[in-house]
Amino acid sequence: MKRLSCIVFILVHLTLQAQGLFPLNEKKYIDSLRHSISNNASSVAKADSYFLLSNFYKSTDTVMSKKYLEIGKKLGGKDSFTAAQYYYYEGQYYQDFNKEKAASAYQKAIEALSKIKNKKSDFYVALCWYSYGVAQKNKEGYPFLIRTMLEKSIPAAEKYGDSKILGFLYTQLALMLTYNAEFEKAHTYNEKALSILEKEAPHSTELFYAYLNTNSNYCYQAKCSLGKQFLDKAGKMVLSYPDSSSNTFYYYNRTLYFIGQQLHNEALQAIEKGLFYAKQYNQKLQMQMFYFHKYDIFKKLKRYTEAKNLLEEILREKTLGQDLNNRKTIYSHLSGINEIMGNLSQALLWNKKYSQLNDSLNTENIKLEINKLETKFNTSEKEKKIAFLNAEKNQKQMEVNKKNYYLWILSLALLSFIGLLIFLFIIYRNNKKLSEQKEINLQQKIKDIRQKEELALTKAILEGEERERERVAKDLHDGLGGMLAGVKINLSTWSSTHLNPELHGDFYKILGQLDNSVSELRHVARNLMPESLLNFGLEIALSDLCEFYIRKDLKIDFQAIDIDQELPLNIQLNIYRIVQELLANAIKHAEATNILLQCSQSEDNFFITIEDNGKGFENHREQKSKSMGLRNLKNRVDYMKGTMEISSDSQGTTINIELNIHGE
């Protein structure tokens, strides 16, 4: 009795969980899938939702399930991943009523998924191998299913890295071990599943079934009191979802618990509640399971007629009887219950059916053993034939090897000769390259010397130019400037005592012109050698330069960023002359009304950017122009080992200059 209960219990769970688990809140789950289909999601996303709906309805409405499956396939189009998904869900569709088609679909899915390298394909590979093992269970046996899980399904789930699917597979493996009476090993895998799911997925359906499976493992060991805590935890999880189909399995586990505790009335109440959900969700196998346990309780309560009627109903319904071992056990129980009731003829009839089925199963087992022996014999004969062919092959191979030996010697000699030729050619080519490289190095040295000479010449010209500017500026400012200033002061003093401003206006006009001449002379002297640069540094000098050029129809925005005040004077002077030339070009030639000047320093690099809204010039003009201003500008930039980029169009001109403060 205990053996049959365990068999059918495993069958129930495999039928459910090979489909994949659904959230306990099934209504919300279905609504979310329908919402995903109705919104503007991609065709591939909608196909995924249709597949999930097909999987959900496969047990309760096969027509709708098939419809959703085909819609998902059509929406997926030529997408390879969706095609692989379709095969998996096709296997799910056939899982309950056509194991061969289901197994074939899973194999197609695995083959297609193996060509797709992404994380989600690992997830479906794990499910496919598990479902394939379940589909082949009746044909290959539980050892095949357990081996498939350990070698295929669980490694794929570990590769995927999702805790829920790994916990689910550990729970299912524990279920297989429970069926095979490996209760301690089953307990180990149940603990693994619980440790993962309680931490990573505390509200998941996977954890709900892990609790139920742990409880059932204890119940089959007659340790129901130890399993009670896990049963209660599962009850708390499903309590908030009275419309969930998972309630069927919760009440089935309660039935197991009450049966183990010999609480028959409580067990019958749990069965009735479980039957309510099983009928509501058309869970035929679960209904028969409840009826079977009801039969067992009626038998213990000596309600033999009701017990016999239930067994006959279970047999007529055929769901449990599909499995020949289950049917054989039911025949045995019908024989026994009829014998207890005194129906000896019926007892004998059922016993004959039991014996016939048992003999048939034994015959099938004998056939299987004969096939295995025949296979071993054929394998042995093939191995002998292969050994003979290998010996013949080895003899021919030795002859071929001898010929190959002489060929190798000849080939090595030929290769040595070719190698010598290649070696000589390489030496010749290397010598030629060395000569060419020496010529290139010589030309480069000549070029470097010329550049150094040009740089020295430029330096000398610039330094001489600056010294001459300084001398002329000093002579103009201190000499001619002082004399003109003195003349102006004397004339101003004399006129204040001898002339009337109203009568001698022409004189005062000439005096004003003299004053303007003095100012212009000082401006010329300042351009030749800016005093603010000598006294206050580069940043102040550039600011003064911009202020000097500013007028009503011209705006200059000067920005200085991190300029080192300790720069050598000759570097500051070169930078000042570059900026001075840039501003002069923008004002005189470009006729700009708005100028942005930015000067910044970053360690050894100095950056100058000037933008104007002038009339611009052609981009190649700076290459062809013979303007002394541009030539001087380029000479100073080259002198400081800098680079200059000019971008100009009808909207204005932008010049970017990068200088090295150690360039000289």
Question: What is the secondary structure topology, with strand pairs?
Answer:
Blueprint: H1 2-17, H2 26-38, H3 43-57, H4 62-76, H5 80-94, H6 99-113, H7 119-135, H8 137-140, H9 142-160, H10 163-179, H11 183-200, H12 205-219, H13 224-238, H14 247-260, H15 264-280, H16 284-300, H17 304-317, H18 324-341, H19 344-498, H20 505-528, H21 531-536, H22 538-549, E1 555-561, H23 569-588, E2 594-602, E3 605-612, H24 621-624, H25 628-639, E4 643-649, E5 652-660
Parallel strand pairs: 1-2
Antiparallel strand pairs: 2-3, 3-5, 4-5
Helix pairs in contact: 1-10, 1-16, 2-3, 3-4, 3-5, 4-5, 5-6, 5-7, 6-7, 7-9, 9-10, 10-11, 10-12, 11-12, 12-13, 12-14, 13-14, 14-15, 14-16, 15-16, 16-17, 17-18, 18-19, 19-20, 19-25, 22-23, 23-25
Tell me what you see in this structure.
A hairpin with a 2-residue loop joins strand 2 and strand 3. The N terminus is likely disordered. The protein starts with a helix and ends with a strand. Among the domains are: 121 residues, Serine Threonine Protein Phosphatase 5, Tetratricopeptide repeat, CATH 1.25.40; 126 residues, Histidine kinase-like ATPase, C-terminal domain (Heat Shock Protein 90, 2-Layer Sandwich). Helices cover 76% and strands 6% of the residues. It is built from 25 helices and five strands. Helix 3 runs antiparallel to helix 4, helix 3 runs parallel beside helix 5 and helix 19 crosses helix 20. The protein has a five-stranded mixed β-sheet with strand order 1-2-3-5-4, with helices on one face. The chain is elongated. With 664 residues, the chain is of the alpha+beta class.
